[in-house]
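re the bet — no i am not wrong, look at it urself. input seq straight from the record:
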Amino acid sequence: MAAPVPLQRFLAAPGEHLKRGPIAVILVEDQTEVAATLAHHLKLGFCKILALSPEPLAPVAPLDDPKGRVLNLIHDTRARDALPRAVNAVIAAAPADSWLYYGYNAEFLFYPFSETRSVGEMLGFHAEERRRAMLTYVVDLYAPDLARDPDAVSMEQAMFDRTGYYALGRPDRQGGFRERQLDFYGGLRWRFEEHLPPDRRRIDRIALFRTEKTLQLLPDHRLSVEEYNTYACPWHNNLTAAVASFRVAKALARNPGSREHIRDFTWRNSVRFRWESQQLMELGLMEPGQWF
């Protein structure tokens, strides 16, 4: 990777880097599985990956990136609202209608048939269905043995919850519910909700969307255009995706307010994560819609 420059300086003159999507924005909050995160999204076929970090990334194992698709850029990823500020700056700089994905290190995007079809193919189909955004569910991953993995991260032994997910209607300002919008809950955020503020308990995220100049990502992972926040079009179900994430497990294992109360993340409904899209589809954590 080339020597990193500040995000804002890069976006002021991005050259050809943002001309072709889909583009991934990865916020690097710590050193956990940075190389694995970048390698996973390279394999999916993102045309450019913006790896944002507060300091230059430490040298990692060589990535299979002969075309230089990964760019390390400097951004204070630990500041309040670091994610929406970064993503909104990229929205403003990228050409309109560019597909954008955002996530954190130790988070891994999955979509139906992602082992054999590129993210560009999948989004091409989604666009043909006149959809400009895609609902993703954040599926919490965790290590089965916190004595062995005190940071709750284990790529080889990763577990997740196979049940315990539910949705509630999303209220509107008139006392009703928003059309084709739901608030989704489950995973570690549900089982250990007493350690999370109410505004951090949802697992839905609009992590894939098309840019337009007035669009803004909000701090709660919704977008400023209401249609972008819908789970499907009015006519039939659409594709959904999932983000397999160690982020909540890391936080619960590290934060002083929760780590003294948690000895184990596993329970009777924990299963081994197979790192494949079929498992997530079988459990209803994403669906192919009309795509086969």
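see?? The helical segments are 7-12, 34-44, 82-93, 119-128, 187-191, 247-254, 256-259, 277-282. told u. also The chain has a mean pLDDT of 94. so pay up
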